[in-house]
UniProtKB/TrEMBL annotation:
<keyword id="KW-0808">Transferase</keyword>
<dbReference type="InterPro" id="IPR011611">
    <property type="entry name" value="PfkB_dom"/>
</dbReference>
<feature type="domain" description="Carbohydrate kinase PfkB">
    <location>
        <begin position="45"/>
        <end position="297"/>
    </location>
</feature>
<dbReference type="InterPro" id="IPR002173">
    <property type="entry name" value="Carboh/pur_kinase_PfkB_CS"/>
</dbReference>
<dbReference type="GO" id="GO:0004730">
    <property type="term" value="F:pseudouridylate synthase activity"/>
</dbReference>
<dbReference type="GO" id="GO:0005737">
    <property type="term" value="C:cytoplasm"/>
</dbReference>
<feature type="domain" description="Carbohydrate kinase PfkB">
    <location>
        <begin position="344"/>
        <end position="395"/>
    </location>
</feature>
<dbReference type="GO" id="GO:0050225">
    <property type="term" value="F:pseudouridine kinase activity"/>
</dbReference>
<dbReference type="GO" id="GO:0046872">
    <property type="term" value="F:metal ion binding"/>
</dbReference>
<dbReference type="InterPro" id="IPR029056">
    <property type="entry name" value="Ribokinase-like"/>
</dbReference>
<protein>
    <submittedName>
        <fullName>Putative pseudouridine kinase</fullName>
        <ecNumber>2.7.1.83</ecNumber>
    </submittedName>
</protein>
<dbReference type="Pfam" id="PF00294">
    <property type="entry name" value="PfkB"/>
</dbReference>
<dbReference type="GO" id="GO:0016798">
    <property type="term" value="F:hydrolase activity, acting on glycosyl bonds"/>
</dbReference>
<keyword id="KW-0479">Metal-binding</keyword>
<keyword id="KW-0418">Kinase</keyword>
Amino acid sequence: MESSAQRRLDSITRHLLLPLQSNHGLQKVVLSSNGGLKHEEAEPVVIGGMVLDIHATPSFPANPRTTTPGKVSYVLGGVARNVAECMVKLGAKPFMISALGLDMAGNLLLEHWESAGLSTEGIWKYQNIETAVVCSIIDSSGELATAVASVESIEKFLTPEWIERFRCNIHSATVVMVDANLNPSALKSSCQLAAESKVPVWFEPVSVEKSRRINSVVKYISFASPNEDELVAMANTLSGGNVFCPIERESSTSKRSKEKLFHMLKPAVWVLLENGIKIVIVTLGSDGVFLCSKGGPSLMRVGCDGIKPCNSNEIFFNTMTASCPPKPYSSLQDSERSSFLLAVHFPALPASVVRLTGAGDCLVGGTISSLCAGLDIMQSVAVGIAASKAAVESKTNVPSTFNLAAIADDARSVYSAAEVVFHQSML
């Protein structure tokens, strides 16, 4: 039986590990080794897959039913893992909740995580788990041609019960990012735990099929980052039918008009916003990003009002603020009416493309890191796009390092070119 001392310790752990807002940023109270209480800066929490990616790149166009010379490489991956690694390399300290087997793939992923000095407390390590593996064929342009994903272990072992063990980390988090690799019950449990302490949740759709899992958790989501196809799938799921059709792509050599493109995506974006999502970030590949929200220019100030900033990343904050000073947007009508839709377009950066597989994850990681550092959503998306550029120029999903000066310069270019493409009532 449990002793009274153990019950008291469990009670303290459950009820005193609480988020506090002080003059020094969001903090949590934890037990120190001598039994006293101490304050620690809160961390973002990332919940989802850690995956070993096997990338096969043919040296020339492959023929069916035969082997093709090329290069095969092991790359550390998984949407949640990539996002978390990007955040680490930009100065944030995410707490990772995931599951790995004690096999070759799991050992590679775990060794890298430990070598970075990161906590593995939230990673379930179990011999019966077959670590998630994705085998991808990469074409000559660095795009994903096709892939086979063996990721059942994430759904099977990353359970609500495992996630519940880290209730205190989630309650005290600055933000919780969930990827849609989670099974529906784990996804809902993660979001409900965050909601108990009003912690904002970021939903990363992962794929068209898994993006539909938004349906059961949409009321908990503050941020979502779909690409065009995921956006349409999410809007159809939330609408209860095939109301919206995928956007037909024009010739890959032609640049799409951002106004025309937003006109096509606007109804689907509005469905997500009407269902309670505060910020929708639509990734458009080489066409950039749409940042969308209800209301007026108060969107530009989202950051301190949503994700509580930490102060441990002061150099990052000062560097990025100097490159991207806050914009007043005083010419816009600051309407808080729920019928207004505001959309801002950010251009993509020219890049020497090596591989595109980590671009979206680094965009999300860069954006969340920036919000956690205290930047507003406009500044943060610009930094995210700069991080994404660094990713596509790397052989790995996440670059080995980020050059802070280069990120700041690229963020400045994106930030200065951002423009409002829509600000009207949807009535």
